[in-house]
Amino acid sequence: MKFFNAQAFYTINEYNREVKINNFLLPNSIFVNNHFNSMKEILEYLISYLEHEDLVTPLYRKSVFDREATSSTALETGVAIPHGNPDYVKKTSISILVNSKKVHWGNEKVDIIILLSVAKNDVNHISSIISQIYDVISDRNRMETVFFGKTKENIYEYFYDHY
Length: 163
What we know:
The chain has helices spanning 6-10, 39-52, 59-70, 126-137, 140-147, 152-162; strands at residues 25-34, 74-75, 79-80, 93-105, 108-117. With 163 residues, the chain is of the alpha/beta class. A five-stranded mixed sheet has the order 1-4-5-3-2, sandwiched between helices.
């Protein structure tokens, strides 16, 4: 299942603030100061975390990699927003990984990865979640202010305070 494409993603402007990112983001799902060398390493790490927390089924891993093989989820601002099939998500969650260097992700290079794991019962909230994320990631300077040199608690507090 494809939640969005890059062009459609950039056209989202309005959203329902009743569904907030911080409903699905936990401090333990934010990873900072990482030193991964590839998209594969990053996705393996994030999906392993989700599996360990029992938030996804084992089939989720394949669905995320299949989605990336279809078309990249990287944006030119240096962020990727991978996601998998909602059929394999037990509980909606958002995972954020800040990498110390940019890695190749499709035709882009990224250092911020926001893994959206949306359960079937929350699919109707995708537009709202993506719009709130876009508020932060549409501008590289803002992204750097929010994500770089911050602790996971700082990042969580930013989303909690602003969304």
